[in-house]
Each structure stands twice: as structure tokens, then as C-alpha cells.
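In the current project phase, we have settled on a layout for protein records. One protein thus recorded is set out beneath this paragraph:
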Amino acid sequence: MGLPPRLLLPLLLVVSLLLPLGASPSQAASGTAPSTAPSTAPSTASSAAPVGRAGPGTGDDFPRLPASCYDAHDVITSPCRVTRYPGRPMVVLWGDSHAQMYLPALRQVARHQRINLTAVLFGGCPISTPYPRSSGFQRTGCDDHNVRSLAYVRDLTQRRSRVRIVIGGFWSGYRQAYALVREEERTGVPSGLSDYREQMARLGVERSRPMFRAIGRLGVPVDMIGQAATVPLDPRRCAAGREPYQCDLPRRRALLDEADNRRWIRSNLMSVLPGRPRLIDATDTYCDTRTCFAHVGDANTFYDDIHLGARLTATMAAYFRPVFRDVLAR
């Protein structure tokens, strides 16, 4: 007999928030970024083992960065120069693995427009400011990465006049985990999250707005990537295949709380950014108003339960062209 939904949900979130990390909490606390691809392990409590280099098969459907962007342990070094065109403008892709999964689309446009593209990535790490040391929270590798990343962007905007930032994050996942944390505080029912995962959820909800205020004070234009579809906790049995999921899904389940997440991103994050930041929504590539499709042409929609496949995101260049157009116009 399977676990009841109330116990399964925390386990899903533990795995969901670990998958984009690709490293153990001890590795994250040491300040190292994740390996290139998230784990493709099934969503069970025993699947939370760290992973290394992506193997063949579905592992090929998550984007890799240039070889120079990995250390000897296949860990991403940040910032990572994806394209280099001396004297040309710069676009910075900043975020977690939900930013990295759109790299194929941004790289296409960057090459076509001869624009520098730099990636600042740390899987499972929300863009946020650290808690004060007096708060009792341990300083993590995610915190150190965010401090360094903000300093990098600040220095970049002082040296270059034509810079634009694209931010992506698994905000819906951090918010779902945070809801479990708050429920535990109210009821005493354990959230099922480790201390580290709980801290990442808190950072994503409580400390993201202060970071976006700090970004806003730099005056650099910023665009945001919206929510992406994920495979729900209890999808119907799919005879065509489970890893990755090979059957169509109802949009309301694949994009859980879609309207609420959109409002939260706009009000909590985008409202403190300068100018008129755009919210990039590429979901109509693979969803209509009722259904999110398992395939688009010969591309799988999903790489794993919480990431889109690289072959799919490679078809999304048109959604990012306005970003590059605007940085050329500055």
C-alpha cells in the first residue's frame, strides 16, 4: 500500500528541490555549484542520492555548458561565459536549474545576434539574500553564491553600458515547500523537509524580495522567466513511459496554481525591478488552454518530473529574442 497523499507530498518536495541541486547539502554548504544535469531518479524517498556526470539517454536532454565552465569534478563554475564577442553587449542568465534548462534557446539567439551570454547558475538555490547571522540559520553555499553573484553583476554594470539580466527560478517549488514549513509551524505536523531544504524554501519566499530590491538598485534591466510545467505528484499511469513522463497532462495539474504563482512573481519580485521587466511565458510551446503535451514534434516535453527537455527549450528562441533586441538598442 502506498503512502497517503499527506505524507507523499513532503517526500516529493524533498526530491523535487534536491533534483536541481545535483549535490548533497554538505557540498552545497561548501560553496560548490551543482553538476550539469539533475538526477533522473524516480520520485521516491530513496532517490535522493547525489549524482554526477549525466549519462546517455535522457541525460543528453539537459543542456550542458561549455567545457571550460566545469571543474575537475564536473561542477559548474560561475560565472560561465557561454558566448564571447569582444565589444558586444552582454546578457546574463541568472538562477537555478530552472534557468539553465532554457539555455539552448538563449544560446541560439546569442550566437545569431553575436551577443555575449554569461550564465550564473546554482541548482536548487533561490536568488535571495542570506539571513543575518543572528537569525540562527547556517550560512550555505547557496548564500555565498548569491553574494558573489550580486557583486559580479554590480561590477559588470559598472564596466559595461549594455547589460541585461534574465532570471529563472523554481519559484513554484520553493513556495510549495514553504507552505509545508508554515503548516508545520502551525500544526506541528512534520514537513518532511531536511533542515537544508527547509532553509532553501525559506530563502526562496522570505529573502528573495530583498535580493530583488538590491538588484533593482543597480538600475540594470531585468526580465523574468515564468513558471514551467512539471509532472504532478500522482499522474495517471502512462503506458508510453514514465521516465520521462510520456503522456499528456491537464494544464491545471502540470502548471499547479499557475495564476497565483504569476501574481506572486509580479508582486513580490518584479515590482521592485526598474523599468518595465517582462515575464517570459513559453508555456504555449507545449500547452494549450487545457492540456500540456508530452511531445512537441520529436522532442519530449520533460527531461524529468520537474525540468523541461533541452530539445524542447531549443525551440523557444523566439520568446527570448526581445531580450537581446533590447540590449542591442541600449
